[in-house]
Write a structure and sequence with these properties.
Number of strands: 11
Number of helices: 11
Shape: globular
Radius of gyration: 27 Å
Strand order of the largest sheet: 9-4-6-5-10
Structural class: alpha+beta
Mean pLDDT: 84
Largest sheet: 5 strands, antiparallel
Strand content: 15-25%
Order of helices and strands: HHEEEHEHEEHEEEHHHEHHEH
Oligomer: single chain
Length: 477
């Protein structure tokens, strides 16, 4: 028989265990899937050469050093994903309104928010919108009620919500061109590269100048195009690109463009370039497929005078920054694909719980491997539905980098003990690491080996989730 005293003691122990925070969890600041390392480091004063400190994983209670995983996807690690989203916000906003070394005058440069989509590979179910009377419109209402060659209806009168499982699924999976879908997806980064080249040429042509300055003055002597691009997966499993296109002076964001070009001129050039570029690709049938952008092209002028909640028309910089950074934390988990591990075939995807549409995309991608050697690397990209690009790319002179934001965060952690009580954190984040006092300059010499991923105990993992949740609650208050 368990006494009341022993039961009370047990409850106190459990409460103490829950309130206590393990060293592993504290060092990773709530990371859900940290990296375990083994090794040691020696900290040496850069001026005197004196050893000012040593550290070894043997000093930890379990013999491992835990570091944050740094994964951008919210489904993998909410804590690291939030940090990545914050870094992305600063990178994007610095290029829109200045800050972190980018002059605030950049906000006066003409900028456009562009969305480029893929063409249609077959009709799919879509989330219905609200008409002018406040009612949901049907998915694909057709009076003639046509059917495809396979006898399936090409119309749909249902009103789908955004989370409806039918959204993005083909009306007829046998009519849907999965091969063209995957070929376009694989070559989308190349199509974007050609678009940026064509955009510069269109802008140069609009002012009667060559792009380069090899034969006299060229467009680059008066203005330069800067951009950043974020990738988003549509419900039909194909990517589309959101981009900020900005016009700078010849030296970058610190100088205004020396040409009389407005945001409307950039919009005209964007539409002309998108309609002009194409890429030819081989197919399993032995023919050539000409790849182009879809007809759905959206352009919005970016201006501080726009409303922050505008869904159409001019866009506010904060709306653009928040919208783009939000999608950087998303992946292919909405299609039922695993967030970790490799997918080697459509059978793997089906076993993992992927949708039938995603499995068919993966099957079509796997067939492309046998076409020619150019498609062989697609076998390593089946988990991303054949997309091989990065979630975010930018031109060199767009603004600050992710690396600079991470270095600023490390500088703040290293120097915060020396700050004045009323110091502003933002001032420290804007410090140039090269300007750190020599007294604080320390060289770290380390030797580390990878030992695995994740916490060794459920207690540490639960504490990590708890810490992240409490942090979100405190920030929301």
């Amino acid at each position: 028989m368990t006494s009341t005293a022993s039961l009370a003691a047990l409850d106190v122990d459990q409460l103490a265990a829950r309130l206590s925070q393990s060293e592993a969890e504290r060092s990773t600041r709530g990371c859900s899937n940290p990296i375990r390392l083994q090794g040691s480091s020696v900290h040496v004063d850069a001026v005197t050469g004196e050893v000012v400190g040593t550290y070894s994983s043997d000093d930890e209670h379990d013999g491992y050093t835990y570091v944050r995983c740094g994964n951008r996807r919210e489904a993998v690690c909410p804590s690291c994903s939030r940090e990545y989203k914050g870094d992305a916000w600063h990178v994007l906003m610095a290029g829109l309104v200045g800050g972190h070394g980018v002059p605030e005058t950049v906000r006066t440069h003409p900028s456009v928010f562009v969305t480029l989509t893929a063409p249609s590979f077959g009709p799919v179910h879509r989330a219905t919108s609200t008409n002018g009377h406040g009612k949901k419109t049907p998915c694909r209402a057709r009076r003639d009620r046509p059917v495809c060659p396979h006898g399936r209806p090409l119309s749909c009168t249902r009103r789908h919500t955004d989370d409806d499982r039918f959204v993005g699924q083909p009306l007829c999976r046998d009519c849907y061109d999965y091969t063209a879908h995957v070929v376009w997806q694989w070559h989308a980064p190349e199509l974007w590269r050609r678009f940026t080249i064509a955009l510069r040429r269109q802008l140069a042509r609009s002012v009667g100048l060559p792009v380069s300055s090899k034969k006299g003055l060229g467009f680059v002597d008066f203005a330069r195009v800067a951009y950043t691009k974020v990738t988003e997966f549509q419900a039909r499993g194909v990517v589309h690109f959101h981009a900020v296109v900005r016009l700078d002076g010849p030296t970058g964001p610190d100088s205004p463009p020396l040409l009389d070009l407005s945001a409307d001129d950039i919009t005209t050039a964007v539409r002309a370039a998108a309609a002009h570029v194409y890429a030819d690709a081989d197919t399993p049938h032995g023919d050539t497929l000409r790849l182009r952008w879809g007809t759905q092209l959206d352009t919005r002028t970016i201006t501080l005078g726009a409303g922050r909640d505008n869904s159409t028309g001019p866009a506010h910089p904060e709306m653009v920054g928040g919208y783009l950074s939000k999608y950087l934390t998303k992946g292919v988990e909405d299609f039922g694909l695993p967030t970790t591990g490799r997918i080697r075939s459509a059978s793997d995807a089906r076993h993992a719980g992927a949708t039938d549409h995603a499995c068919r995309i993966i099957a079509a991608a796997a067939r492309l491997v046998t076409v020619n050697e150019d498609y062989q690397p697609i076998a390593r990209r089946l988990a991303t539905l054949g997309y091989r690009g990065h979630p975010i790319t930018k031109s060199r002179a767009y603004g600050v980098t992710f690396g600079s934001r991470r270095e600023a965060r490390r500088t703040w952690r290293r120097r915060r003990a020396h700050l004045e009580p009323d110091a502003v954190v933002r001032d420290v984040l804007d410090l140039d690491p090269d300007q750190v006092d020599q007294v604080d300059a320390v060289i770290t010499l380390g030797s580390w080996t990878y030992a695995g991923r994740g916490y060794l105990t459920d207690f540490d993992a639960a504490n990590a989730v708890r810490t992240h949740t409490l942090t979100r609650i405190r920030r929301a208050q």
